[in-house]
Structures are given as C-alpha cells and as structure tokens.
C-alpha cells in the first residue's frame, strides 16, 4: 500500500528564493520532499534498494515529526541549500561511520567516501547522509555527492532562536561558538530528494530508515561463526594445514579468507587463481567445503592489463587507473557482465562463498581523482560515493540468483546498503575507536567489525578478541601477521572459551539479525537507542558527578565505550591497561551475563572483571537461546539442542527465529518465529515453554534445556 498524503507548504524565511514544500508520505512514517531537480543517479539507485513496505506498515502511523515551517530548502547557483531546525537540548547522531564521536551536534563535516584518517570530519568508509535526533526523528539526503554539513554550528541572521549578543571585553560567559538552532547542508547539485523519518523514538526512526533500505541483511548462520583470514601468500596446502590445526585444537571455524596471494597478480588484479599456490582451485574449494569450511576471496576491483578480461572490459572503464589497473564502470551493463561473469565462472561456480572487496573507499593518492571521467557519463565524485554500493549489490545478486546466502567484507558503503550482506572493516586498528565505530554503525544502516590482527601483548590480544566475538563478524585478519587464535599461549584457553561462547550464542545472534532484517532493529547499537537511557544534551547536568547523580552521566555525556548487542545484552569492553571500568546501566534491572546476579538499576557501577571476562549485562526478563559449541554452524536440516537462559525477575516472552540458515527460501515464507515464554509457577519455580513447530515450516530445534540464571 502506498500512502500519498500531500501537504503543500510555503516557507517564508528565504524570501523569494524559498521553494514551496510538497512533502509526500511515501510509506507510513516516511516523507519525501523533492527539491529542485534531483539527479537520477543517487545512493538508492546505486544500491537498487527497495523499501520493505509491509514491515513499514506494521510499524504504524506517526505524525510528521518536525515543524514544517522550520525547514527550508532552495536551489541557487547550481547548489542545493537545506536547513532543518535544532532545539536546545536536542542531540543528533549518525552522519555515517564515525570513529571517535557519537554526538554529532556541533560538527562541521564533508561527507566524502574515504579511508578513515583519524578525524571525524566526514571522510569515512560509510559517509551516510542520514542523522537521527534524540527527539525521535531521522533526516536523509539522497545524494551521491560530497555533502557539506553544519550540524548546529552556524548562526543565521533570520534565526528564530538567536543566541544573545555578548561582549567579550566584559562578559566572561562569551562563547566563541554561539548557540545554533539548525542543521544546514549544502549539496553540490541542482536538486535532491530529502527524506524525513518519523518516530516517536529515535529507535523507530532508525528502524524506518533500515526498512526503507530494504531491511537489514540476514547473514547465513555460518556467517556468524568464526572466520580466519590467512597470510596473503598461503598456498592451498597451507590453508588446509591451518584448517586442520583449528580442528585438532578444537577452535571453531566457519570460513577462511584468502588474501591477495590467491590471485596470479594483485594490485591491480587478475581475478584468476595463482596456479603455483592453488593448482586445483575447484578441488581445493570442494575439499574445504567437505570439511565444513567455506572460502572467502579478497579482491579489489582494479583490472590488471594482464587479466584475461582486460581487453573486453577496457572500453567500459574510467579515464584514470588505480595502481595502473582499469576501473570498471559498474553502472554499465556491459562492464557488469564481463566483470561479474569472471567471478561467477572462476569462483562462485566452484563453491566460493563470498568476497572481501577492498580499496574502494579511497585514500586520495591511490584512488581515481575527481577529474576522472567514466564512459557512462557519471562523475568521479558520484562513482566514489557509490562504488561500495555497486560492488556489494552486484556481487550479492550473483549469490541470490543461486539461492545461496553470502556474507563478506567491504571497505565502502553508503545509504541504501543496509540489506547488503557485507561488513565494513579498515586498517586503522585503534581498539577504542573500533568500538565507537561499532556504536555508530547502528545509526548508519551498516555493519562493522572491530577485527583482530596482531597485538603487542596477550592482554591486548584477549581484550580485542573479546570484542570481536560480540560484533557482526568474529574475525582474525592475519593477512600480514599470520596470527592464529592460539598465538598467545598464555591466553589460548581463554580465547578458545570466548570463540566457543560466540558459537554457543549463534541462536541469539541469528535471531537478532532476523530482527534487523524483518524489523529494521540494528543488532549492534548505541546506548542512546535504548529505553531508559535518555539522550537529551541537558547542559545543566553536565557538571554533576557520577556518584552523586549517576543518571546525569547517562543523559549528558557521550558514551563511546559500551553498547547494546541485540535486544537484551549490554556489552562494556575493557581495553589494554584497564583492570576496572565504569558501566552505565539504563533504568530497569540488569543482571550479570555469566552469573545471573543482579548488577544494578539506572546507575553507574564500577566493575573489575578480570582478564578472562568481557563485562556483559542482561536486561530483566532477558532470554538468551544458546546451542552447543559446535566447530561449524549447523547444516540446514540439522536439529540443534538448545539451552535457553532466562535472567532476572520478570517473566518473559521472547522470540526465536528459525529457517534453513543458508538459502533465500525465507523470502517465500519459509521461516518461523518460535515463541519462548517463561513464567513463575505457583510454587515459585520458573517454567519455560517454546511454542510448537509450525507445519511445513523449518524446525531445527532439538532438545531444550532451561537455565534460570537468577535464583528466585
Ligand atoms: C588492505 C586491507 C587488509 C588486507 C590487505 C591485503 O587494504 O585493509 O585487510 O586485506 O589490504 O593486501
């Protein structure tokens, strides 16, 4: 059902230049305003994303969340000017995958696809032009251009809420950055589609954004297991030996990533197997599959003049090269056919499970420059903002056509990409900032992995490993370091335990990803999206001390080091050198994940968990379905015994998602949400129940054991 409620509005603040506003409700709770002449090529067309209208309808109706006469838009001199209001006390989040900050109010950014360069200035792997307000709405600018953002920094003459003029000579409270009441954006194009997402909560706005992009991706079950990326020059024999070692030592392993050396030439690439290291690729991939391990291939898209596809694809490539390799214009059907045809025949058809698509984000000295031209006529800028979307969508389609799910890695994405089965990574390797990125990924409609590579100490190794196991992709990227999970013998057992915990939690992770897919709820996200955790930037409480008023911290301070993992879990990592930390527990009771003991309620606690544990807390009434620590994800028809854990004092109703875990049959209704109920009986004991399987629907649940973690 398409709702078309048209509201005509004329804004006076820009005198003659203002455009009348014709907001159209394109789906329940989502409004679009076409400003000027929007370009035909944009983020959503590159991603080919389609809204999940059914799920959006289920989310229900809500009112337009912003005062319309406080929004103004105009086109002048070939550029689009946008202004949206900001209240005092309103905080904003998002604007892409930031690494050092969660609060975006007060920022000046240029949203520009790039490798992250140690500054939250808009240049990042997912420069998503979407922001979420603590007041419970979202704003999205659908443009494949570099967008300048003034997020509550500039003061206009016609401001409705102007700051007071102060005299610096005499007034000690004079501010160098006076209060600003607007987010203003400049898009270098003659028009743009502007979208507003309704609430009422910030989480609702995020859900609407994700569902508008088609819903989050649903990885295959094996994607949520453990993955090891091996040394870049490993041969087929080396890889098999490594897999054997995982098995002998009983460390879980679902897929292995091959780094550049699987190709005969790389940087630029041939996309062909190296005959020396991999003499029989088909046999190699099959042997690995037979032992339950999938193969993921690294590549960048730059075509070596020595690649067999080079002569054919050359006419469909850009004017400039990357490492002297040609850049396919993947908006052209001819280029797509040649490029992906090679991937299909040489990799996917012999059983390769997915890709890591590297180097499409930037670093200006490597990437095509903005003066490059492409045969389709699209600009270098448009190509740069969307190349990550193009490769994700087009490679994902190859798997979709084979009714086979994939899950891989990519270094560039953008709005529209939520449903694409890829996780972003980079080379930056700051553990703290990797966690902040994980928090921000939930505002940007993307997934992020705080990958583990190498470490100076076993403490660092274990701390990093703990966090990657509570992220979208549990991975060691040993392309240069050749590290293995057991590389630090003094913590090898602890590493194994946490890798096994990752496997045990697969039913939980899988269900949380299903919620991402069907309901738009990001599986990893900021505390600011959690009920009981207020987000208003209340100035008056900024100075309150944690101990006097613990809740003050939660409403005012930027929280960059703890996050929500799925519906019930709060994760508070420790970093090298830390033995103790503060954890902010939102209102409501929280319980220790490992012991089930009460941990706190709307307060700041100080914890000293020891090196072995990453602090994790469970919401009252939380249900965590777990399975045995298998070495590989269950097969489609495999029955799996469950241990279902209940935490806290509240009775519970929860859902467990089930399907075959590998195909797209869920798109045809082949899935089921099993209902888990935990109630207290007359004798005071807890009793748990899982709803019956549905006829003709998948049922992978074997024997169920209950664990009531919090004793009555
Ligand atoms: C980098 C990438 C690394 C690794 C390496 C291989 O660009 O971020 O993860 O794949 O290339 O050369």
UniProtKB/TrEMBL annotation:
<dbReference type="InterPro" id="IPR017853">
    <property type="entry name" value="GH"/>
</dbReference>
<dbReference type="InterPro" id="IPR033403">
    <property type="entry name" value="DUF5110"/>
</dbReference>
<dbReference type="InterPro" id="IPR013780">
    <property type="entry name" value="Glyco_hydro_b"/>
</dbReference>
<dbReference type="InterPro" id="IPR048395">
    <property type="entry name" value="Glyco_hydro_31_C"/>
</dbReference>
<comment type="similarity">
    <text>Belongs to the glycosyl hydrolase 31 family.</text>
</comment>
<dbReference type="InterPro" id="IPR011013">
    <property type="entry name" value="Gal_mutarotase_sf_dom"/>
</dbReference>
<dbReference type="Pfam" id="PF17137">
    <property type="entry name" value="DUF5110"/>
</dbReference>
<keyword id="KW-0326">Glycosidase</keyword>
<keyword id="KW-0732">Signal</keyword>
<feature type="signal peptide">
    <location>
        <begin position="1"/>
        <end position="18"/>
    </location>
</feature>
<feature type="domain" description="DUF5110">
    <location>
        <begin position="642"/>
        <end position="685"/>
    </location>
</feature>
<dbReference type="InterPro" id="IPR025887">
    <property type="entry name" value="Glyco_hydro_31_N_dom"/>
</dbReference>
<dbReference type="GO" id="GO:0004553">
    <property type="term" value="F:hydrolase activity, hydrolyzing O-glycosyl compounds"/>
</dbReference>
<dbReference type="GO" id="GO:0030246">
    <property type="term" value="F:carbohydrate binding"/>
</dbReference>
<feature type="domain" description="Glycosyl hydrolase family 31 C-terminal">
    <location>
        <begin position="556"/>
        <end position="624"/>
    </location>
</feature>
<keyword id="KW-0378">Hydrolase</keyword>
<dbReference type="Pfam" id="PF01055">
    <property type="entry name" value="Glyco_hydro_31_2nd"/>
</dbReference>
<dbReference type="GO" id="GO:0005975">
    <property type="term" value="P:carbohydrate metabolic process"/>
</dbReference>
<dbReference type="Pfam" id="PF21365">
    <property type="entry name" value="Glyco_hydro_31_3rd"/>
</dbReference>
<dbReference type="Pfam" id="PF13802">
    <property type="entry name" value="Gal_mutarotas_2"/>
</dbReference>
<feature type="domain" description="Glycoside hydrolase family 31 N-terminal">
    <location>
        <begin position="77"/>
        <end position="146"/>
    </location>
</feature>
<feature type="domain" description="Glycoside hydrolase family 31 TIM barrel">
    <location>
        <begin position="218"/>
        <end position="511"/>
    </location>
</feature>
<dbReference type="InterPro" id="IPR000322">
    <property type="entry name" value="Glyco_hydro_31_TIM"/>
</dbReference>
<protein>
    <submittedName>
        <fullName>DUF5110 domain-containing protein</fullName>
    </submittedName>
</protein>
